[in-house]
Amino acid sequence: MTEVGGFRDLWNDTQFVKQELYSRVSSQQAIHFLFDFLKPTHCSVSGGCTKNFLSPFKIPNDASKAPFTFDVKGWSDIPSGIVKYTLVVHKLMKKSNSNLLTIEAKRNPFHLEERNVAALPFPKFLPSSSGVYAFILKVTDEANNSEFARQIAIFDPYSTISTTAESNFFVSSAEKLGNYSWQSRGSYIQFTWENYFINAYQVENHLLLPVEEFSIDGRDTNINEEEEKSKGEDVKYLYDDHDGKRTLSGVEHVNGITGFDVFYSYISYLTSSTNDGTTPSDEPFNLTNTNTTAELAATNTSNKMRMKRSSHGSLPATINPNTIENTFAPTSVEPTTPTILQASRSGGTENKWIAIRNITQSTFVLKQEWRDGDSINISVRARDIMNNTKTESRLVSFDGSPPSVNEAIFTKNVGNSSYKYSSRVSIMASDEHSGVRQVRWRLTDKAKQDEIYKEGYLRNDPIQRSECSTIDDCYCIPMGECYKKKMEFDFDNCWLATDKSLLTKDIFVLEIEAFNQAMLSSEVTRYELGRLTSFDGIDDGYGIRNLTSESFGNGTKLTWENVPSCYKISDVTVLLYNDCDKAKAPRQITLPTTKTEYVLDDLQ
User: Fold this and answer.
1) How many angstroms separate the CA atoms of 592 and 563, rounded?
2) Nearest to 384 by CA among 281, 255, 204
3) pLDDT-flagged residues of the chain (< 50)
4) Exposed (0-12), middle (13-18) or buried (19+): which is 376, by Cβ within 10 Å?
């Protein structure tokens, strides 16, 4: 309060005249000081939020190919009120010697913008390069109290999902020797896609790693660090980023893939019940069953031996099938804790996308009863955090029955064909479900049947249906592939060239069996090949024949023939004795192996 007033004395030169009094006047003014030590709060913490304000700092799409938008509604401050909002953007990078993301330039924000309440909302923000960004919101009241909220987001408009080696995606319950395309046993169909899908850009640039603790240096370059430390400022847990696709904790992924869906269609060719794999809905079907470990069932299928006779071959002997090791026998596969789905063809899971809960598994097992000749088309869809997708498919077909051999004929000595000394094997075999894809032959010694002396394979590649219509011994399987029933291959007689001392003792057996695409084998046909010297090129002589001599003057001319044979002549030597006395060592004359004559002269 202030007060004014008083008096004055009046003088005339040196003479006092009078005193005048002033009326007193007073005035007062009140000053109020407001103390505010409380930070702004968000309704998600204080209570009272509507559904629209549940997040203290909302970025609607935290994995975006488009500009980012921001929602900062729901903040309040009592008693002083909010005066401004500050948005700080930092680009993140991988921290050295750590699997954490940290701020790339702590003292140089990627973007900084300040707005008062009336100037909200913040405009859209489009980063100039792909990467992971930390968006920090600073809310400040009239007393300069501040609260922080943080969001982590990815900007990646260009990366895509690719695939690695085709062999990384296969039906592991199918036959390996059938290129995993055919399954012969068990109702469990297991397929695996480990390390097949990848978003290489996101992996190589570390876009999915966790983010380190919030740093003072990364908040606002205008904040005095010592002052901030004294206040104990930090992003509170409730105001930090724990919800959404890209959070502080990083992103669960396998090679940059964050989700897998599978899709299957059963194809019954006989009933024309096919499906091209088109999904009626893009939404994945969620499984409700638990993870289970199961062994794929294996059915024992032993090869029975059958006797066959032909006009060109001898009667084959029968043997015990238990003594034959079938190296093509299918082996069961034991899945490692996969999800097993019981297939249902009516209103169930067929022709629907099925979401895989455990993405690290990369294996799925379908329990499905099947008929010979039918197929299942299996698709796997990979999805990354940007919602990019890539779908790949595999077709597996089924055949649990072995092929049949109608006729197998061995024709001895057909002349100079594929080999100089050839015999020929003809086989009539078929398989109505998967086709006969190859024939295996084995040459064994009858006395040592467990030892394979020689073996080989004849592939029977499919032919065009148009070509099949002009061939009598042709057939087509339900899938549409066509095959010839008659298969031939030439047999090299020189494969029988054993040691000459054993030619009259050894008995060779030729075994023939056909395999379908599911690698099931037919009954084994066996031929005893008989006397070995009856085969062209196999002889028990000594390499020459028809040795003759022709005398002239004091000399003689020797001529001979090299016997056509699988046995190569190693050397030709003429032994010359003097006076027919064989007690003395002869003179040896070595000739080239191609020589068929020699002249001796100056004989005495």
Assistant:
1) 15
2) 255
3) 216-232, 272-281, 284-336
4) buried
Same CATH topology for 41-157+214-239 and 159-208+251-297+332-400: the answer is yes
pLDDT digits (tens, 9 = 90+) for 328-339: 322 233 334 555
The burial of 245, by beta-carbon neighbours within 10 Å (0-12 exposed, 13-18 middle, 19 or more buried), is given as middle
In the structure encoding, which two tokens stand for residue 172, read together? 């592991």
Q: Is 168 helix (H, G, I), strand (E, B) or coil?
A: helix
Task: Look up the CATH number of domain 404-531.
Answer: 2.60.40.10
Supply the pLDDT for residue 546: 87
In this structure, what token pair is assigned to residue 77?
């401050």
Q: Where are the domains of the chain?
A: 41-157+214-239, 159-208+251-297+332-400, 404-531, 544-600
* Cα–Cα dist 312/424, whole Å: 10
Query: In 3-state terms, what secondary structure has residue 50?
Result: coil
Please return the burial class of 132, using the count of CB atoms within 10 Å of its CB with bins 0-12, 13-18 and 19+.
buried
**Per-residue model confidence (pLDDT) at position 427:** 93
End-to-end CA distance of the chain: give it in Å, rounded.
167
Question: How far apart, in whole angstroms, are the C-alpha atoms of residue 551 and residue 553?
Answer: 7
Fold of 41-157+214-239: Immunoglobulin-like (2.60.40)
**Distance, CA of 71 to CA of 137 (rounded, Å):** 10
Helix and strand numbers (H, E) in the chain are 4, 35
Count of beta carbons in the 10 Å neighbourhood of residue 398: 24
Options 2.60.40, 2.130.10, 2.40.160, 1.10.10; which CATH number does 159-208+251-297+332-400 get? 2.60.40
Contact 514, 295 (CB under 8 A): no
In this structure, the number of other CB atoms found within 10 A of the CB of residue 208 comes to: 21
Cis peptide before 60 (omega within 30 of 0): no
Rounded to two decimals, the pTM is 0.73
Q: How far is residue 345's CA from residue 342's CA, in Å, rounded to a whole number?
A: 10
